[in-house]
Write a structure and sequence with these properties.
Helix content: 55-70%
Number of domains: 1
Radius of gyration: 18 Å
Mean pLDDT: 77
Structural class: mainly alpha
Largest sheet: none
Number of helices: 5
Length: 127
Amino acid sequence: MSSSTTAATADPKVEIVENIRAISKLLSQNTDIYSYYPPKDHRCYLNDMDQHMERAADKLEQGGDIREVGSKLFVWEREVLLHALRFHVPGLYEHLEQVRDKIGECLAEQELAAMMQELDFSGQPNA
């Protein structure tokens, strides 16, 4: 895959956004998903999961915090996985896995950068 060769130089947010949009497209192409929860069911917002995904991708593209977007996606992950299994949507799980992995990498890099800032050049914590 060409994305793996450019992953070191590309912004990981771009790859996350691409995978989120792919999830959105797969969800929007499966019309059975939209009628799964009745309108009065408290989970009926999941009928619009593709739109939730698009908004998350837009927010990341506009410089949104990856931690905030990631936390929303992790909440939705279970339902998206259930949709993938319930409606046999090919590729849905794979894109979700890519998003989860890339967000995890980005958050780990942010944590590492924050820890490195707390250390001075001698390797001792700043006072």
